[in-house]
Design brief:
- By secondary structure, the protein is α+β, with helices and mostly antiparallel strands.
- Strands 1, 2, 3, 4, 5, 6, 7, 8 and 14 form a 9-stranded mixed β-sheet that branches.
- A hairpin with a 3-residue loop joins strand 1 (about 5) and strand 2.
- The protein has 11 helices and 18 strands.
């Protein structure tokens, strides 16, 4: 079962097919099916037929809909000899895109030469019904774990709040009008703190808000420990320097990396381990494809979630988002209890992933 705070803030860890507590595809489909007026969707790709069918159902109910996708999944990297022939890599993406166009969904593809890496939906326009869905999960069978031999570990956050949706509205309008990645023809407002169910939330978008700096700032506030689960984490990110500094100062640092990315020469895995941190690799066993989280918990109080990998391109070039949930300086007892519950749900999944999939990275002799 997901962690739900006052029916306004929801946290999902999946997929259940890998032993995680939640069904991510069902959560996304249910979120879409509850829409009554409008949906603005910004996601890297849609390869899940149930999710595409839910979007088409929403359009058939008369909802206003806008959809933006990464174009790389809609075209062939190597043009076939017969472009009219059906098949090839990413064919299901193209099939579902065509079906959504035939359903009269207003859809566009990005023109960011780097990566359009957003994963969010804004639901409805009336204040009482507004909600946001975001996280690390692509709308694919592998990322939701709905079927296939290999499945990826991911998370979702749902916030029922007008003001959080307003923050994502600004980002979506910028995308819809054609500003992607590092092409910054508009000035985005500075991130602001919002309270949902009493808990502080702060939304940041790359590249304009430089999420790397926010993550480093949160790390440097740690007094006891930092735990994380990450798909891609490079030595050049700056986040690794902050973690190493904290580990050397006595703060407990523990992280689990995707094995395919964490074994690379450029990865920060070994550096975290050598600085005294606890580093694990999520090996390809028990049906695991990728550990695809972008998740961090600081002192069991502050959770950082979203689409943002810990890399320099994610910070400077890609379209990304993060949510900082909680505040290290929180003094309200109710708010602290709420943010601790949110963090505990993330920590329980990090513990489970290490226990089921983790292989310890040894210190360098």
């Amino acid at each position: 079962m997901p962690f739900i705070l006052n029916d306004r803030l929801e946290f999902y860890m999946g997929p259940s097919s890998l032993g995680a507590p939640d069904n991510l595809e069902a959560a996304i489909v249910d979120f879409i099916d509850q829409a009554q007026e409008s949906l603005d969707v910004a996601v890297q790709e849609i390869e899940s037929r149930p999710i595409a069918e839910a979007l088409i159902r929403a359009r058939q109910r008369g909802l206003r809909m806008r959809l933006v996708l990464e174009q790389d999944y809609l075209r062939a990297s190597k043009p076939p000899a017969d472009p009219f022939a059906v098949g090839g890599e990413d064919e299901e993406n193209r099939n579902l895109f065509a079906a959504m166009l035939r359903a009269n969904i207003d859809a566009r593809a990005d023109y960011n030469p780097d990566i359009f890496h957003q994963k969010f939906i804004i639901r409805d326009s009336r204040r009482a019904r507004r909600a946001l869905l975001t996280g690390s999960t692509n709308f694919t069978p592998t990322d939701t774990g709905s079927h296939g031999s290999r499945k990826n570990l991911n998370h979702l956050v749902i916030a029922h709040d007008q003001w959080v949706c307003n923050e994502y509205d600004t980002e979506f309008e910028e995308i819809w009008q054609g500003t992607f990645g590092k092409v910054r023809s508009r000035h985005e407002p500075s991130p602001r703190n919002i309270r949902v169910a009493g808990v502080s939330l702060r939304a940041l978008f790359a590249p304009d808000h430089a999420p790397e700096m926010e993550i480093m700032k949160q790390i440097l506030k740690a007094k006891h420990r930092v735990d994380f689960a990450i798909f891609t984490f490079s030595q050049s990110s700056g986040i690794d320097d902050a973690l190493m500094a904290m580990a050397k100062s006595g703060v407990a640092v523990r992280g689990i990396f995707d094995a395919g990315q964490g074994n690379r020469d450029w990865a920060a895995t070994r550096m975290v381990a050598d600085s005294g941190g606890e580093a694990w690799l999520a090996s390809r066993k028990n049906g695991l494809g990728k550990l695809h989280h972008k998740l961090m918990v600081i002192d069991g109080e502050v959770t950082i979630a979203g689409s943002f990998n810990y890399t320099d391109p994610a910070n400077r070039l890609n379209d990304e988002n993060i949510l900082v949930i909680g505040d290290a300086a929180e003094t309200d007892p109710g708010a602290r209890l709420g943010q601790q519950g949110f963090a505990a749900y993330a920590l329980a999944e990090i513990d489970r992933m290490i226990a089921v999939h983790g292989e310890r990275v040894p210190l360098t002799p």
